[in-house]
Each structure stands twice: as structure tokens, then as C-alpha cells.
Amino acid sequence: MDSNILLLSLSLFVLYVAQLSWCYQSPQGVKINYREKEKEVLDQILGPSSYDARIRPSGENGTDSTEAPTVVRVNIYLRSISKIDDYKMEYSVQLTFREQWLDERLKYNDYDGRIKYLTLTEASRVWMPDLFFSNEKEGHFHNIIMPNVYIRIHPQGSVLYSIRISLTLSCPMNLKLYPLDRQSCSLKMASYGWTTDDLIFLWKEGDPVQVVKNLHLPRFTLEKFYTDYCNSKTNTGAYSCLKVDLLFKREFSYYLIQIYIPCCMLVIVSWVSFWLDQSAVPARVSLGVTTLLTMATQTSGK
């Protein structure tokens, strides 16, 4: 009798534990596939009937948000500087460029924090600011192995756009103090079509420009950089603009080794002709011509 009661109690306990674990799978008792939920959310917020990428988002000023300009916050991660050309007056950089703005049309249910953000790789799916680099000469995106770009949509409607790009930018230089000079090169970003009534660019608060550690430059060192605003006004309206000023100091040690020391040595060698006998004309001429040819070769850089 006691064994039957014990067996019945054990069976009821096992059944209770199974029922409890089944109930805790989800509030409805069914395990939710959150990857499927992400697909449903994307179809819901980016559907053709609910979202139009041609229309800019409303502003951030409460009741007047529909009339306020869209605010886009920008930050940059400077990965490398591959070339600073004195002759063409340009420099080449590789950077990660990021923009962040609020689009209330993209709000969605995060299922109690289970969906932190949604990731897209097609920028055409959402509205994008029409930013361009005003002092750019050449530029290209990176597509190895996949396009280096993503868009993150957060539950509150915040959109983060990140892309890796390489640019060649113009940099007017003042070479009066060469090779003891310092050069300031700018990176300017502005809106092409949206005026300040519709779109405003702001630097992200707190460290808007980051530089990779151990940045190595050819013949230069990056002393410091400044962030500023360069809003412009034309016949078609006022446009928002951001800029970064990079201050480069030329490395004198390079020119000391490559130019100053070789030239001094050649001058000292040319003095040897004063100690040669006056009658040793071939030796004096050969020494002088060799010195001149060496100086010419050193100057031409060949």
C-alpha cells in the first residue's frame, strides 16, 4: 500500500515538473522563434504600404516634429592615411563613416528586449541623408568579401548607418617653410539637396572622431585634429556642413637623412679637389663632374 502511494506521488511530481517546464517556454506555452519574428517585423515596418524611403523622417521637437528638420549625428573612425602628396596637393584616407538619426516610422515591438536591433545591408530600403564629401577627388566603397556596409534599426526607431570608404581629398598646402612646415588638411561633409530647413548634420556628442592606434604616415605625423561646422549659403538655400581639420607635421628626420646629410657629404668630397696637385687636371675635372652628377641625381630623386 505504501509503495503504491509512493509511486503515485512520484508520478504526480514528474507530471508537475513537466507541466511547469512546458508553461515556461513562453507566455503562451509555445516556444517563439525570434528569427521569424524579425522577418515579420521587417515586413511590417518596411512594407510598401507603411514606409516610403523617398520621404524624410520628421524632426525631434515634439508637437512640431513634422515641420522640424531631421537631425543626423555623424562620427568617423579614421583607419589609415596612405598618402600625402605635395605635388598634387592631396591626401588619401580610409575611414569608417557612421550616421545616426531617428525615424519614428520604424518603431517596432522588441518582445521584452529579445530583439535588440534589426540589421540590413541594403541602404535603399530606408531613407538616407544625401551627404557628400565636398573636397573629394576620388573615392570608392569596399566590397571584399561582402559590401562593408550595414544599417541597424533599433526598437525606438533609431537608425545607425555605417560604411567603410576610401577617399582622395584635396589639400591646399603652403610650402614656404618646407621641409619645416605644418599642413592643415580638411575633410568636409555637406548635404547636397536638403537645406537646413529639412536636414541638419551634427557631430555626435563625445569623441566624434576616432583615430586608429599606431597610425603611421609617410614623412608626416598627425599632431591633432579639430571638428567644426562649415554651413554654407548659396542661391538655392542654406546647407548643413561638417568638417574635420587634420594638422600634419612634416618629419624633418626623413629629409635630414635623404637630403641634408648626402648634400653635405658631397660638398665635403668636392673640397678634396683643393688638395690635388694643380697639374692633375683630369682628376680635378672628374671629381667636379662626379659631384655635380651625383647632386643632380640626388635632386631628381632617381
Automatic annotation (TrEMBL):
Subcellular location: Postsynaptic cell membrane
Neurotransmitter-gated ion-channel ligand-binding domain ranges (all copies): 39-250
GO molecular function: extracellularly glutamate-gated chloride channel activity; transmembrane signaling receptor activity
Keywords from the named record: Cell membrane, Chloride, Chloride channel, Disulfide bond, Ion channel, Ion transport, Ligand-gated ion channel, Membrane, Postsynaptic cell membrane, Receptor, Signal, Synapse, Transmembrane, Transmembrane helix, Transport
A GO cellular component entry from the record: postsynaptic membrane
Positions of the Neurotransmitter-gated ion-channel transmembrane domain: 259-298
Topology relative to the membrane: Multi-pass membrane protein
Transmembrane segments: 252-276
Signal peptide positions (record): 1-23
Record flagged with keyword Membrane: yes
PROSITE patterns: NEUROTR_ION_CHANNEL
Matches recorded under PANTHER family: NEUROTRANSMITTER GATED ION CHANNEL
Family to which this protein belongs: Belongs to the ligand-gated ion channel (TC 1.A.9) family. Glutamate-gated chloride channel (TC 1.A.9.4) subfamily.
Protein name: Glutamate-gated chloride channel isoform X1
Protein source organism: Diaphorina citri (Asian citrus psyllid)
